[in-house]
Specification:
Layout: E1 2-5, E2 8-11, H1 22-26, E3 29-37, E4 40-41, H2 44-58, H3 68-78, E5 84-91, E6 113-120, E7 132-139, H4 154-165, E8 170-177, E9 180-186, E10 190-195, E11 198-201, H5 213-221, E12 226-227, H6 232-236, E13 240-245, E14 249-256, E15 259-260, H7 268-287
Parallel strand pairs: 7-8, 7-14, 11-12
Antiparallel strand pairs: 1-2, 1-6, 3-4, 3-5, 5-6, 8-9, 10-11, 10-13, 13-14, 14-15
Helix pairs in contact: 5-7
This protein binds pyridoxal-5'-phosphate (PLP).
Length: 292
Amino acid sequence: MIVHLNGKLIDAREAMISPFDRGFLFGDGLYEGIRATHGRPVALRAHIERLANGMHELGLVGFDAHSLVRLSDELLHANNLTEAFLYWQITRGAPGPGHGPRDRVPPNAMTPTVFGFVEAVPAVESFVTPRAIKAVLLPDMRWQLGHIKAITLLGSVLAGQEAMARGADDAILFRKVPQGDIITEGIATNVIALVDGELVTPAPDAAPILSGVTRRLLIESAPEIRQRPVTATELRRADEIMLAGTRTMVVSVVELDGHAVGKGVPGPAAMRMLGALRARLLADVDSAPTKP
Ligand SMILES: Cc1ncc(COP(=O)(O)O)c(C=O)c1O
């Protein structure tokens, strides 16, 4: 596999990163996961915008998020892939001489580490019927800045392990607020549900969630999806529950905490959402930004 490391395309076996990299020692960095189809990264503008916003919030400088247009194309071509998942990670890098590797506050001038790899995935056209999965509801133990796509994913790892231990495929997370338990998101997905005939998705201002690019594309394609706080009680009586993400596309939760959701099979809303996403991604190939 050919990977990108700090401006160079090299064999993955030759990629070396300093053990003092703050990404490794502190989880001080950001990532993006981007889908490519027909040889082009899709929804790239939205991914770049989210990365640039995250870099701004972290004060992470020295990398132009817009260069992902060119770098993503190069990485795809180097690996000869057309249907792919691109992973980009930008960390704050390793401190130079005179700066302690364990200093929590980073020195002002740092050179970020930029790493990217790409994996083959099934073609967008092959996502016709939503995959059926089992999920459990778990308390959201992650940090409060869920809108930042930080590489520190220990809370998600633990939730994933707990879901597996309970015989489920995924977890849907909730936070306790004075009004009750409100749903945040899946481990690596956003949640959309059909509750009382209405398509709803947790609002980002109700509790911290990542503003998923897939979620955004689906809301643009189906403006009837209402963004509002969604409670765990509502989810337990939902007719359909869907999880949406770049890699996942749209899957149907057919069992929640051991109880069937709706009829216990992927429903018409999930079919419609997956169809809308498929169409949207394929339409985006033609309007994808080109190399500057
Ligand atoms: C916590 C979380 N929520 C939502 C998503 C979905 O985001 P996107 O649609 O941009 O892939 C992800 C993707 O990794 C995620 O990690």
